């Protein structure tokens, strides 16, 4: 489960566009963007193409 690194809330919404992908915190007191999912997706793509 995703957890916001800034406030610890587990309420997040997946978000992606041409340059960013990650989770947007839905806590009204926080609302920050966590882009750590981006690196994991890049690694998965490399594994698939290598096989
Ligand atoms: Zn947060």
Describe the structure.
This protein has 51 residues and is α+β, with helices and mostly antiparallel strands. The chain has one domain. 27% of the residues lie in helices and 24% in strands. The protein has 1 helix and 3 strands, in the order E-E-E-H. It has one helix spanning 37-50, and strands spanning 12-16, 21-25, 33-34. Strands 1-2-3 form a 3-stranded antiparallel beta sheet, with no helix packed on it. It is globular and about 35 Å long. It starts with 11 loop residues before the first strand and ends with a helix. The mean pLDDT is 81. Bound molecules: zinc ion (ZN). The site of zinc ion (ZN) has 8 residues, from loops.
Which helices and strands appear, and what pairs or packs with what?
Layout: E1 12-16, E2 21-25, E3 33-34, H1 37-50
Antiparallel strand pairs: 1-2, 2-3
Main attributes?
single chain, 51 residues, alpha+beta, three-stranded antiparallel β-sheet, 1 helix, 3 strands, 24% strand, binds zinc ion
Radius of gyration: 13 Å
Query: How do the strands line up in the largest sheet?
Result: 1-2-3
Q: Return the string of H and E elements.
A: EEEH
**How far do the termini sit from each other?**
28 Å
Associated small molecules: zinc ion
**Proportion of helical residues:** 25-40%
Total domain count: 1
Class inferred from helices and paired strands: alpha+beta
Strand content: 15-25%
Number of strands: 3
């Amino acid at each position: 489960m995703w957890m916001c690194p800034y406030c610890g809330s587990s309420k997040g919404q997946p978000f992606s566009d041409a340059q960013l992908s990650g989770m947007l915190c839905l806590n009204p007191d926080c609302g920050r963007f966590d882009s750590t999912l981006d690196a994991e997706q890049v690694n998965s793509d490399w594994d698939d193409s290598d096989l």
